């Protein structure tokens, strides 16, 4: 992703953070994004750099005023005034804000951490089941049927935000279901300025081991780290820590001596 695109996404992030995010915001933004994805003509119209910014803003208001949450209209109109690499990049930027809005709603309900953890666990469940993974990724099967399957697996067991986002991830327009969920988890952690570390071990960490590793990783990067633990017999008594683009490997002793040496 280019520096210019990062700057535009950050601008929209700040705008959303300053908005009054209603419970319907994410649903409305997802609907706008779906409309853009279904019409190349519409995507070109709202992102054409040859059209004056004011005209693009007016077009968005003409299309959306009175149909979706006013805060959604304002954010889409502002996004339309920016220069994007293409219509799909623009749609992806709006989808990011829809996901963030759902996470903001979860945070308001004191369910953000539960949602983050549940998304991770469900993604692991899907990954461990080839039949389920293939079923969710089979575009020959109607999208609504695949989403109904996800809801049936999660309803009554997770937060509403987990269900909304897991169903949304089934679209996986550019990536796989698992990679899409991973992106959502990263955004959830970012809501609280946290990073996510995936820790692969042969057997569950003790509370002491987990706390030591978490403290060491947090000290290393200068902010809080959330640990997502994956039991992987192939690790053979070792530990593999994936933190962003960095990977650390070592031996798991009773007190995670290797991790202590690495981060101490």
Provide a descriptive summary of the structure in words.
The protein folds into 3 domains: 3-108; 112-190, no CATH class; 195-263, Glutaredoxin (3-Layer(aba) Sandwich). The protein is of the alpha+beta class. 62% of the residues lie in helices and 10% in strands. It is globular and about 60 Å long. Strand 3 (238-243) and strand 4 (246-251) form a beta hairpin. The mean pLDDT is 89. It starts with a helix and ends with a helix. Helix 2 (25-37) packs antiparallel against helix 6 (87-108). 31% of the residues are buried.
Residue stretches low in confidence (pLDDT < 50, at least 5 long) are none
Average pLDDT, rounded to a whole number, is 89
Strand content: 5-15%
Q: What is the string of SSEs from the N terminus onward?
A: HHHHHHHHHHHEHEEEH
Give the beta-strand count.
4
Main sheet summary: 4 strands, mixed
Q: Which strand order do you get reading across the main beta sheet?
A: 2-1-3-4
Report the principal-axis shape.
Answer: globular
Please identify the structural class as seen in this structure. alpha+beta
User: Ends: how far apart?
Assistant: 33 Å
Q: Could you say how many structural domains there are in total?
A: 3
Query: How many distinct helices?
Result: 13
Estimate percent helicity: 55-70%
Rg calc: 20 Å
Which short descriptors sum up this protein?
264 residues, globular, 62% helix, Glutaredoxin, four-stranded mixed beta sheet, 4 strands, 13 helices, alpha+beta
